[in-house]
Design brief:
The complex is a heterodimer. Chain A is of the alpha/beta class. In chain A, 45% of the residues lie in helices and 20% in strands. In chain A, strands 2-1-3-4-5 form a five-stranded parallel β-sheet, sandwiched between helices. Classes of the chains: A alpha/beta, B alpha+beta. Chains A and B meet through helix 1, helix 4, strand 5 and helix 5 of A and helix 4, helix 6, helix 7 and strand 6 of B.
Chain lengths: 120, 453
């Protein structure tokens, strides 16, 4: 069973992401901010990471950059959830090494399709 | 030659006329220019004079300036009033070289010569400004004005400080309210999420319970088996009851046979009674014949009497037996009636029980079908509620957007506070304040975009 790390400081988003992915049969580990997300990610590898962008402390792009430096996360799909709609931030996300850029709010089905496309 | 000279002359005249016209026009322009400049100069002079007059009028002492002919060329209202009140004349003024006291009416005035044709007049109160001359008077006036301005500035500064303080308080209150809004929203969202989680779990439990009731067909088979077994048990019971009824019918037939036999026995006893009656009659005749025979017939008479007694006993016995048989026949008839009633009731009861069992089975099947339909409906409702909960949870994403927006509002309020301080308090550096970058531009809960890199 594939395991996904979901990082978001918003409990509502975290709940929706976790619930959606779990209902599709994936295992989900939740983190309440970027710092906790990094700690958990570095503790054990995940098949996929879904992270919020705007978080206190370590933001989403910093987290992506940090994880991409680790060999075990070079190929792991990392999706950034964000309220940022601008192309410039999207390009920052691409440059940081994000696999996908998903603008909030979003439908659970859309998230599930993204997960299936990323890790099957 | 003459013609040439005339032509030259004509040309000269024309040139002169042209030059005269040009010169005239230029002179006219210059005159107009001069007049305009003169008008401007007059206006400027009038304006300057008005300003000087304003200054004179603002001075706290009387000013009078006279020309050589004794005409006042400059003065203020105080000066003109005091000049007249003190009964001064131009000659007296011109004679004053040092500050002099002049009495006019009840008031004493001090008159000082400030310049060759400029005199200051003031009621005798303070001689110092007069002794110091006009520059000092003007400086004093300016100083007074400065003090007034400084006082005004101080008052305005105090007012600005007060307004700034109020503004800072308002901004702090605004930021506090923003923080409380975030806290309230967080709290409400936390509870809503917990409620939704609980609701979802309850829906799942309810659906699971319904499915466990409906099952996968095994329970249906169990119900059908139960109904079949109930029907079988009832049939066995009915069969046993039927056998009992048949036994009762046989018993009735037996009773009928016994009844017939009893009637036959009663018929025999009728015959016995007839025989006994006949015997009794014979014994009576024998007794009569024995009596007629006398002593020889005495023994025969005794026998005849005994025979008659036997006949009477036989009749009594026969009647007693007949009575017993009739009682037995009556009891048998009653038993037969009861058996018939029991048989009829049993058959009715069996039929009713059968009908009731069929009805119960039908009702149970109906209830079972209805329960299954209800549980299926409950499953559909649970799915719909689950979908609604999912939709509500999606809408709860407004929480994330709203909290971020409120964060921006808080930063902007902070910036407004710094900017205000920089305006009111010059020591504050407004340029060091960075405006927050807007990270939320969404205006509705419509779904966002997805991009794969």
């Amino acid at each position: 069973m594939k395991t996904i790390l979901a990082i978001d400081d918003s409990p509502s988003i975290r709940l929706m992401v976790a619930h959606t992915i779990r209902s599709a049969g994936y295992t989900v580990v939740e983190a309440a901010d970027g710092t906790e997300g990094l700690r958990i990610a570095e503790g054990s590898p995940f098949d996929m990471v879904i992270t919020d962008q705007n978080m206190p402390g370590v933001d989403g792009l910093s987290l992506v950059r940090t994880l991409r430096k680790r060999p075990e996360y070079r190929k792991v799909p990392i999706i950034v959830l964000t309220t940022e709609m601008g192309d410039d931030m999207k390009q920052h996300g691409r440059a940081a090494g994000a696999t996908g850029w998903m603008v909030k709010p979003f439908h659970p089905e859309t998230l599930l399709n993204v997960v299936k496309r990323a890790i099957g | 030659m003459i013609e040439i000279a005339a032509l030259v002359l004509l040309l000269g005249v024309a040139a002169f006329a042209t030059a005269a016209i040009v010169l005239g026009l230029r002179l006219k322009d210059e005159r107009l220019h001069c007049e305009r400049e003169l008008a401007e100069a007059r206006a400027a002079a009038a304006s300057a004079a008005a300003r000087v007059q304003d200054i004179l009028e603002a001075l706290p002492l009387g000013i009078v300036s006279v020309d050589a002919r004794g005409m006042a060329i400059a003065s203020n209202a105080h000066g003109r009033a005091m000049f007249a009140d003190a009964g001064l004349s131009v000659a007296r003024l011109k004679a004053i070289r040092e500050p002099a006291f002049v009495t006019g009416g009840p008031t004493r005035y001090v008159v000082a010569r400030c310049a060759p044709d400029l005199y200051a007049i003031k009621p005798q109160l303070d001689l110092t400004p007069l002794l110091q001359g006009i520059p000092q008077v003007v400086e004093a006036a300016v100083a007074a004005e400065r003090r007034q301005l400084e006082q005004s500035h101080t008052a305005q500064q105090a007012q600005r400080d007060q307004l700034h303080g109020k503004l800072v308080d308002q901004l702090a209150a605004g930021r506090n309210e923003v923080a409380r809004s975030v806290s309230l929203i967080d709290d409400a969202i936390g509870k809503l999420l917990a409620t939704f989680k609980d609701l979802e779990k309850r829906i799942a439990d309810q659906q699971s319970l319904g499915e466990s009731i409906v099952g996968s067909g095994a329970e249906e088979a169990t119900l059908e088996r139960f109904l079949n077994e109930a029907r079988g048990a009832f049939s066995a019971t009915a069969e046993r009851a039927s056998r009992s009824f048949r036994t009762l019918l046989q018993l009735q037939e037996t009773i009928d046979g016994v009844e017939t036999q009893i009637e036959e026995v009663v018929g025999v006893f009728d015959e016995l009674e007839a025989i006994a009656d006949q015997t009794n009659l014979l014994a009576l005749n024998a007794t009569i014949e024995a009596a007629r025979a006398g002593t020889a017939g005495a023994g025969f008479g005794v026998v005849a009497t005994e025979v008659r007694k036997l006949a009477e006993r036989s009749t009594t016995f026969s009647k007693a037996v007949r009575h017993q048989l009739e009682g037995l026949s009556h009891e048998l008839l009653r038993a037969q009636t009861q058996a018939a009633d029991v048989t009829r009731d049993g058959e009715d009861f069996a039929q009713r029980s059968h009908d009731h069992l069929e009805q119960l089975s039908s009702e149970m099947r109906g209830l079972d079908a209805k329960m299954r339909d209800t549980i299926v409906d409950m499953g559909s409702i649970a799915n719909a509620v689950r979908d609604d909960v999912a939709a509500a949870v999606i809408s709860l994403q407004f929480h994330d957007l709203l909290v971020q927006l409120l964060g921006h509002v808080d930063k902007r309020l902070e910036q407004i506070g710094h900017t205000t301080s920089a305006i009111v308090l010059p020591s504050e550096n407004a340029t060091s304040i960075v405006a927050p970058r807007a990270t939320v531009l969404q205006a509705s809960m419509s779904s966002g975009t997805v991009d794969f890199f």
